Every structure is written in C-alpha cells, then in structure tokens.
Amino acid sequence: MTSKSKKRKQRIKERQQEAWQAQKGQRKTVRHNTAANQEKHRADWQPLQPDEFGVVADRRIMPRDEMERRKQVETLAAQAVATDFNEAMWQRLAAATPYALGIVVEVSKGLCRVALDGKVIVCDWRGVLIAEQTGYTNVIAVGDRVLVSPQEAGRGFVQEALPRRSGLGRADPFYSHLRQLLTANVDQVLVVAAWREPHLWLQMVDEYLIGAARNNLTGIVCINKIDLAQDMAEVEELLRPYQTLNHPILYTSAVTGEGLGELTAVLRGKTTVLAGLSGVGKSTLLNAIDPGLNLRTARISNMPSREGRHTTTQAVMYPLTHLDGYVIDTPGIKDMGLLGLEAEELLDYYPDVAAFAPHCRFSNCQHEQEPDCAVRDGVENGRIAQWRYDNYVKLHARLA
Ligand SMILES: Nc1nc2c(ncn2[C@@H]2O[C@H](COP(=O)(O)OP(=O)(O)OP(=O)(O)O)[C@@H](O)[C@H]2O)c(=O)[nH]1
Ligand SMILES: [Mg+2]
Ligand SMILES: [Zn+2]
C-alpha cells in the first residue's frame, strides 16, 4: 500500500470516529473562547455587529436551518416576554424547536431533574449556558422551562432555558454584583411562620416579605400551628399591621385542619414558593393539602431544638395536580430579603413607619435618638406597631 492511500484511509477512519463520537454526544468540546485564542483571532476579524437581540456569537457556525429556527424562537420569545407570558407561550416556543419542553424541579451541581411527559428525568446541561450573560450566578433554577434533548439511558440534555416570566432571586452572597436565582417562574411567596415551636419570629417574616416585594412577587403570610394558640384575638391583634398593609394572611393548623381550605384557595392555579424557618411546618402543610406528595417532615418525637437542622434540604418543585398549580418546598432561605439592599431603601418596605418620617424635626432623622422624632411618637401613641418599629431599627442597623 502506498503511503498516500494509507494516509487517506487513516483520515477516513478518523472522520468516521469523529462522526460516531458526535452521534454519541461524546465529542470533546473544543474551547474556542480561551483568552489566548481570543487574542490570536482578534486581528483576523472585523468587529462583529450585534443583531437585534444583541447577539454576536455562534451565528456563523450553525447550520442554516438552525439559524432560521433560532431567529424564530427568539422572535417568539421577544413576543412572549412583551405579552401574556403563560404555559401556552412556552409550549409554542418549544414547538418551534426539535426539543421537548420540561420543567426543572430540582437542581444540584451540574445536574438537574426535569419533569417531562409525566416523568422526572435527570438532565445534564450544556457548558455553553453561561451565567455571566444572565447576570445570575446559577444558570438554571427550579421552575425554569427548559428545552431538552434525549440522551442515553433515559437521561436528558438541557439545550436552553426559555425566557422567565418572574423569579425569586437575591444578591449572591459571594459575588454581590450578580444575583442568585432561587426559583424561576413563580407567582407568589408563602411566608410560613409558626405561632409556637419555634416561637413566632416576625423579623424573619418581615425579611421574607421584603424579599418577595423586591422580586415583584405577592407575599402571603401564613401563621401555622395555630392549634398551639390560646387566644385567637391576641394572634390577630399582633398581626394586624400586615393586614393594614394589605398582605394576605392565613391562620392554619396541619393538626386540626383549620385554615387549610383558605390555603388551598390561595395555591390554586398558582406557582407558590414556601419560605420559612426550619420546623414551622411547610412540608407538613403541603402534605395536608395533598397527601400524595408524601414529603419528609420532622416527627414530633425528634423535633430539633429551636433553629434545628432542616428536614428539607433542597428547593424542590411539586405539581399540585388537582389544584392546577405548583409549589416549591424550600429549606429556610437565609438572607433572602436584605442582601444588596441599601440602608436608605429599607424605609420603602416599612410604609407604616415611613408615613411618619416627614414630620420628624430633622429631615435626616434616623428615628432612634433624635428629639422630636415623629416616628418614635407614633410608636409611643400606638399608631406604629412596636414590633414593626423594632424590626425596622434592627434591620437598618444591619444594613448601615
Ligand atoms: N402542633 C402542630 N405541629 C405541626 C403543625 N404543622 C407541622 N407541625 C409539626 O412541626 C414539625 C416540623 O414540620 P415540618 O413540616 O417538617 O417543617 P418544615 O417547615 O418543612 O421544616 P424544614 O423542612 O426543616 O424547613 C413536625 O414535627 C410537624 O409534625 C401544626 O399545624 N401544628
Ligand atoms: Mg420541610
Ligand atoms: Zn424620626
């Protein structure tokens, strides 16, 4: 055999191998985007013009029909964001692609679980989904609608996350210029607190409500374990400030079933995130609403002390099939409300306190030590709830 034909045979073999590997989805990723490569190619190219979506990358190297498809999906997506963004819209977006539409129900490092066609499958996601482009440190969040292509052994591959209609995020604890998306595509936050065991901690409720408001989500207060309250009038009196501020408020007991009807009504047709300290009864409440969920809860006998360990360890989304809604059970989310908030902004979330501030003697009054402080007067004559004022002062000190 001549050396020429030997080389040709070798080349064919290599190509076949390549094709096979590509088919298997195992082709090694070539990193074009390293700093060294960027430098090398910089001189070769005219500056790229971003298209109407601000995208310059990867247009050149995709097949023509893929380019058309992308354009179509992006146009649809732009319409979707601008108009009514609902389930049907996601379905239309997915229909314009060769991929299947799924909902991310759980996320861990590099993997996620996606509800798709009535099953839940494990999916990898692509290295090209880069968080920097989105301003979030995590690329995929629970609640995301994603496009999935099949992989071997019943697994899937997340091709992309479709535009989100909403989300519950917070400043990333480590990269404060970025946000961490806790959950995507949610309607409301159910802030669960217990009347006793653990003792009602209204500062935490305030913080969660601030977090909901900063994400443009409705914050609903749910006071659970109401069976442990001796005097309902006392409970309602204490929580009146929330009522005055128009926060929906529920009183529930997973033990007696009180308030579960109202809770069901609130969850119907919505995607709801449950937030609250460990042990307040989030999972127990969900089980009471839908026994089919069968979530792990802490048994009374091994109740952890006060702040205890979390029984729920990951944010997980569950369908409430008979209510046409979804719930996301979370372990207590720490620092949800306040991260990244400026001290001066806090007053925006305390309209009951803010209402009095213009009447203070000093325009820069901090409402703590200053003379003729209308806010402190308001507290003294009972027009501002003492605990709301105390919470404001404590949280303000934390931000200052
Ligand atoms: N008395 C009373 N106990 C309750 C009620 N709801 C839940 N509990 C108990 O409170 C404990 C904690 O409940 P969980 O549902 O595990 O609490 P959780 O909020 O999901 O806690 P994490 O998953 O750790 O965040 C369990 O022992 C429940 O039985 C209630 O309405 N009344
Ligand atoms: Mg739980
Ligand atoms: Zn003042």
Based on CA atoms alone, the radius of gyration comes out at 26 Å
Element order: H for helix, E for strand: HHHHEEEEEEEEHEHHEHEHEEHHH
Head-to-tail CA distance between termini: 81 Å
Shape: globular
Structural class based on helices, strands and sheet pairing: alpha/beta
Given this structure, which CATH class of the largest domain is correct? Alpha Beta
Q: Superfamily at the CATH H level of the largest domain?
A: P-loop containing nucleotide triphosphate hydrolases
Estimate what percentage of residues fall within beta strands: 15-25%
Poorly predicted runs of 5 or more residues:
23-30, 300-310
- Number of discrete domains: 3
Report on this structure.
By secondary structure, the chain is α/β, with parallel strands linked by helices. It has 3 domains: 64-163, Nucleic acid-binding proteins (OB fold (Dihydrolipoamide Acetyltransferase, E2P)); 186-329, 3-Layer(aba) Sandwich (Rossmann fold), CATH 3.40.50.300; 343-399, Probable gtpase engc, domain 3 (Ribonucleotide Reductase Protein R1, domain 1). It is built from 12 helices and 13 strands. Helix 3 (64-82) packs antiparallel against helix 4. The protein is globular, with a radius of gyration of 26 Å. Bound molecules: guanosine-5'-triphosphate (GTP), magnesium ion and zinc ion (ZN). Zinc ion (ZN) binds next to helix 11. Residues 224-225, 227-228, 253-255, 276, 278-284, 297-300, 303, 310-312, 331-332 line the site of guanosine-5'-triphosphate.
Give descriptors for this structure.
12 helices; 19% strand; binds magnesium ion; six-stranded mixed beta sheet; OB fold (Dihydrolipoamide Acetyltransferase, E2P); binds zinc ion; single chain; 400 residues; Ribonucleotide Reductase Protein R1, domain 1; 3 domains; alpha/beta; binds guanosine-5'-triphosphate; five-stranded mixed beta barrel; Rossmann fold
